[in-house]
């Protein structure tokens, strides 16, 4: 089968590798153009470009996939199927109609839940206990195409987005191979999406700041949901810091401190592993902090290094 692969980030890499390992003919890899990266802002290729070059696969990087030039390239390639995994551009109807078997998308959620750009981030942030991967036949909507296969995955209570991402990327690769085989053999029946749906929009700066009036579970989920990117932040003595690890906890609150909810963000005690902090409801233990421009460190080292005092408050800037 002649395949065109479209993908850009690390999540798409296992899918491309799986296609190559299983002997599928990947005739061209489409990925986003090189972008400035790092402190020197030097142009850097995408993870998919790097792996494609290592596999000696031809790479094409159109600025706009809908351009006449890109469409002409696709039509000349005459792919039987186009595989799309987190490519980062919307395909037009003209492109969707090129391959005989259609365009297959690997999406990191159990559709129709969490359509959109950041399904893993939002599933973890919202405290979901289950997610997964769905393959679908693409249409002109945003992740609205008919579903082909699904694979579920249980999210551990303290799992981060990074950890879930890595599992789903490989789960998606396995599901993609099963999907292509099923389509070749004609034993997969596309199923239209129905029922309630939700969206997982791109993350914005406003999503990254911790609100200490939230309950402990929501704060904990926000911290792990933004790990390893972009990171949840707060302030300590006017200094912005990112918090990378936490857990909810149960300890008795000393009567000399205000009751829970009155001073969200207040540090009430040192624990064996970190700092116990009041929230709008419950306590959260902060385990790992990163000051601006510094490396990550234990929250105890951060607190002691600044001669912190119990009763001080996170969140004020």
Task: Describe this entry's structure for a reader.
With 317 residues, the chain is an alpha/beta fold. It folds into two domains: 2-185, Rossmann fold, CATH 3.40.50.170; 205-305, Formyl transferase, C-terminal domain (Methionyl-tRNA Fmet Formyltransferase, Chain A, domain 2, Roll). Helices cover 25% and strands 26% of the residues. The chain has eight helices and 15 strands. The protein has helices at 13-21, 47-54, 68-77, 93-96, 119-125, 161-185, 216-225, 299-305, and strands at 2-7, 25-30, 35-37, 42-44, 59-60, 81-85, 103-107, 130-137, 147-154, 232-236, 239-249, 267-270, 275-278, 283-291, 297-298. It has a seven-stranded mixed sheet with strand order 5-2-1-6-7-8-9. Strands 10, 11, 12, 13, 14 and 15 form a six-stranded antiparallel sheet that branches. Strands 3-4 form a two-stranded antiparallel ribbon. A hairpin with a 4-residue loop joins β12 (267-270) and β13 (275-278). α1 runs parallel beside α6.
């Amino acid at each position: 089968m002649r395949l065109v692969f479209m993908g850009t980030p690390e999540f798409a890499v296992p899918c491309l590798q799986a296609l190559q390992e299983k002997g599928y003919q990947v005739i061209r890899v489409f990925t986003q153009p090189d972008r400035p990266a790092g402190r020197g802002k030097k142009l850097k290729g995408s993870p998919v470009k790097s792996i494609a070059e290592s596999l000696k696969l031809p790479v094409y990087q159109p600025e706009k996939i809908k351009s006449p030039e890109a469409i002409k390239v696709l039509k000349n390639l005459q792919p039987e199927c186009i595989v799309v995994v987190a490519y980062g551009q919307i395909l037009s109807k003209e492109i969707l109609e090129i391959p005989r078997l259609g365009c297959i998308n690997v999406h990191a959620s159990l559709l129709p839940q969490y359509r959109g750009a950041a399904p893993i981030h939002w599933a973890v942030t919202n405290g979901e206990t289950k997610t997964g991967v769905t393959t679908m036949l693409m249409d002109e909507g945003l992740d609205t195409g008919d579903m082909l296969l699904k694979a579920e995955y249980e999210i551990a209570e303290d799992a981060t987005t990074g950890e879930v991402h890595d599992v789903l990327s490989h789960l998606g690769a396995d599901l993609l191979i099963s999907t292509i085989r099923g389509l070749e053999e004609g034993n997969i029946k596309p199923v239209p999406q129905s029922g309630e749906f939700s969206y997982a929009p791109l993350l914005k700066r406003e999503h990254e700041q911790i609100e200490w009036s939230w309950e402990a579970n929501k704060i904990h989920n926000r911290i792990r949901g933004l790990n390893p990117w972009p990171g949840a932040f707060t302030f300590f003595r006017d200094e912005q810091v990112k918090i990378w690890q936490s857990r909810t906890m149960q300890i008795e609150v000393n009567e000399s401190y205000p009751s829970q909810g009155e001073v969200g963000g207040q540090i009430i005690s040192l624990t064996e592993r970190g700092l116990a902090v009041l929230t709008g409801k419950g306590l959260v233990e902060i385990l790992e902090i990163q000051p601006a421009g510094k490396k990550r460190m234990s929250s105890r080292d951060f607190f002691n290094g600044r001669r912190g005092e119990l009763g001080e408050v996170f969140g004020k800037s």
